[in-house]
Amino acid sequence: MIKGRCLCGEVSFSVDGPLGRSAACHCSQCRKQSGHYWASSSAEESDIAITGQVKWYEASADAKRGFCPNCGSFLFWKAHDEDAVSFSLGALDEPTGVKLECHIFVADKGDYYVIDDDLPQSEMS
Prior knowledge:
The chain is mostly beta strands. The chain has a single domain, classed as Metal Binding Protein, Guanine Nucleotide Exchange Factor, Chain A. 6% of the residues lie in helices and 36% in strands. The strands form two sheets. A seven-stranded mixed β-sheet has the order 6-7-8-9-4-3-10. Strands 1-2-5 form a three-stranded antiparallel β-sheet, with no helix packed on it. This is Glutathione-dependent formaldehyde-activating enzyme. Residues 2-114 form the CENP-V/GFA domain. Keywords: Lyase, Metal-binding, Zinc. It holds the Pfam family GFA. Belongs to the Gfa family.
C-alpha cells in the first residue's frame, strides 16, 4: 500500500492495488496547474481511499482534476470514461518504490526545459 497527502494534510489518500504506468505529462493543462510537468501513476478508483474533501475542476469535456480546497495541491486526474484515477507522485509519502516509466504529451512540452533522460517519449498519451 502506498500513501500520499496534500501539502497541508487535509486531504490524504492510500492506494491498495496494482498501479498503472508512472508517467510525466507535459501537456499544457498539467504544466499550468502544477507549475511544471506533472508526474503521476494511476489505480482503479475502487483501490483508492481518499480522506478529506477534494475539490474537482472540470478541466475539459473529457476529464476532471482534483485538488485540496485548502492548500491547492493538485492531487488527482480522472477521465470521465475510465475507472482509473491518476494521482500525483509528488504527493506520495516516501519511500514510494515507484519509478517514472515514460513521458507523455511531449509535443506540448514547455520550451524552457529539455527532457534529457532515456525514458520512452510519446507525442500524445
